[in-house]
Amino acid sequence: MKKPLLALTAAAAAAAAVALAAPASAAPTGDTIVTFTVATADLNISVPASVNLGSVFPGGVVTGEIGTVKVTDDRAALNATWAVTVSTTSFTTGTRTPEETISPALVEYWSGGQTGSTGTGTLVPGQPTPADAVSLSVPRIAFSKTSGSGDNSASWAPDIRVAVPATAVGGTYQGVITHSVA
């Protein structure tokens, strides 16, 4: 019987050694939920208040830059895309008779390339060169952002070309070019 007693004693000693080597049970834990907000704002556009293209005789063409247009996108969006549409009213003087009115169909626009930008993504000018000019007889896409995320901005300096009819009367003509971003 000596063998089984010796085996039982050895097994008890091994169990005692394991019990002594095991770590003490861990202390209770606590979780803290941490939150914060990434602020967002709006999608905005800024344009020059006014521009004077100079003078032209009836039957001529007047061309000029209308100044810097800038889109600022502070929406912090995952899909931060947008498009700018440009349109115009008729250009008129006096009492707005047909001889005192230049229709939007006689106004051409081209965006040119970007003059500045921030953020990431793909910016696409609507009409990169004067050869790409489009009539503003209908609203047109002036500039767009087709990919990217987060806050961003883009600016460009578009030009217009107005074909003055030979029947136009003298006077200071005024119209409104509108850029809208969505």
Short description:
By secondary structure, the protein is mostly beta strands.
What does this structure look like?
- With 182 residues, the protein is mainly beta.
- It has one helix spanning 2-21; strands at 43-46, 61-65, 69-73, 82-88, 91-92, 101-102, 107-110, 114-118, 122-125, 134-135, 140-147, 152-156, 159-163, 177-181.
- The strands form four sheets. It has a four-stranded antiparallel beta sheet with strand order 1-3-12-8, with no helix packed on it. A four-stranded antiparallel beta sheet has the order 2-13-7-10, with no helix packed on it.
Mean pLDDT, rounded to whole units?
90
**How are the strands ordered across the major sheet?**
1-3-12-8
Q: Would you report the number of β strands?
A: 14
User: How much helical structure, as a percent, in the residues?
Assistant: 10-25%
